[in-house]
Structures are given as C-alpha cells and as structure tokens.
Amino acid sequence: MQRLRISILSLLIFLVILFNIERLDIGDENVINLETAIYVLIVIAIIMILSIRWLQVLRQPTLIALSTIAYFFVKLVLTPQRPLVGDIYTYLSFTELGLVIVAVFLTQNLALIIKDFEQAVENFAFANIRKIKRVQEAHEEIQAEIYRSRRFLRPLSIIVLEQDSENIQKNINKVVQDAQRAMMEQYASVMIAKELVTQLRRTDLLFENDKKGRLVIISPDTDLTKTETLIERLKSLTQSAEFPINFGVAIFPDHALTFEQLLKHAEMNLQQRIDGHIDTNSLREVEVGQERSGILR
What we know:
It contains ten helices and four strands; from the N terminus they run ααααααβαββαβαα. The chain is an alpha+beta fold and about 300 residues long. The chain has two domains: about 120 residues, no CATH class; about 160 residues, Reverse transcriptase/Diguanylate cyclase domain (Alpha-Beta Plaits), CATH 3.30.70.
C-alpha cells in the first residue's frame, strides 16, 4: 500500500509541476513556453498506459523509445512551426522530451504497482480455489486442438460465458461498490468455473479470458446440436448455483478457421444474445451446412 501511495503522490506532484511550469519565470522573461500539443501528448500517454495492459508490461526502454518517437512526430509533423534546435529552442526541446519520458516512467510504475496490488488481493481472496488458465497462457494447447480439427475434418465449438452483472449488488457506497463489484465478478467466475469443471468432458478445455467475468470453453468433436445440449446443461447448473450466465457460440469450420476468428465470432454472438438480437435460425443453418458438406458423420 505504501508503494501505491508513493507512486500516486509522485504522479500527482509531477502533474502539478507540469501544468504550472510556465509560471516558473527566470527574471522578467517567460523562458519556459511549452507547446500545447506536448501537454495533450502527455495526458494521452498517461491515459493509454493506465488503460491498455500490453503497454504496461512493455520494457521501460521500449516504452520510452515509443514515447520519444511520438514526441518527434508531434514536433515535426503536427507542430512544425517551432524548430527543434537553435538558441532557446534546444533547451525547450530537451525540457519537453524530458517531461514526456518522466510522465511515461511514473505512469508505468503506477500501473505495474496497481496490477501487483490487484494480483495480491486476488491471490489472498481465492488462495484456496484452483485457478484456471488464461486463453493467452494456453496458446499451444488451443492451436493443437484447432490443428487436429483441421487435419481430421472434425467439428469444434467455442463457447464464451459471461456472468450476468445485473445480479451484482449495487446499493452501497460508490468506492466500496467498485471494489465489491470487481471481487464479486472474480468470485463468480471462479465459482462458475468450479461448477463447469464437474460437467465438462475430459476433452473439453476451460480457460479464463482477459475480460473479467468471462470464460471460454473449447469443445473438440462437438457440433452445433451437441453444443446446444451442453449449453442448456451448463445454464441449468449455474442458475441453480445462483450465478446466471450469458453465452456466445462459434463452430469450426463454418464460422471461422482460426481460434482468434472463432473467439471473435463467439463474443459477437454473446453480445447479440445480451442485446436480445440473436437470430437462432442463423445458428441452425450452420448445422445444415455441416451436414451438406459431409463434415459431420
């Protein structure tokens, strides 16, 4: 907690200095006169690093290199009216670039501390419950199933499950509500996964997606009819455990040929079901197409 407080305080102090730096006049002349675009660049960089996870885990030299490239792009392309070097402009350019690098460094440090804190809370809360793999951690295992389905012309289904967030308690203090919602979503995911494991076949694969509260089931040798049967069984199971779920489906090879495309299709199908715009006839046509192609035996 102390590291988190220090990191937040450091970033706040930096922002205070940044937005008041032009008040630090030397003599009677305002020497420090930063481009407006630099302020915008720093704010965008902070928001992106705090929001996008893959940026947070980049090595610092790589992230600093990217921010330096972004700085020169802004200076040379978006604001070419002021030279980079020469007299006072050399000093200003080094000042602007230094501020961008410091902002990136402090923001990434805060993002990593927040990530570590979230992981620590999660490990503490769910230490006694077996974790399931994330999709990104099982790339080789997933690709092996996709290859096998291609090689032997066998169907494969992907089901994306997501708990119904409307069932999470809301009538509490806003700060506590946010914390409780995150914990409840993770708890629900773990409990749903625990229930699912008892119903899935040995050949079925269960993974956790990056999005909180979302699980992915990969079912080899499973066509649309078998998938619908599995979904109905899973829905009744999770509803009895007071964790209602929404789901989306994608079938190999009719919807897509790669895992990434199948996952995207299943997530689109999930959103359609949540919005109530799903066309069940379109899914039924998949089975007809499979029978005609001779894939299902």
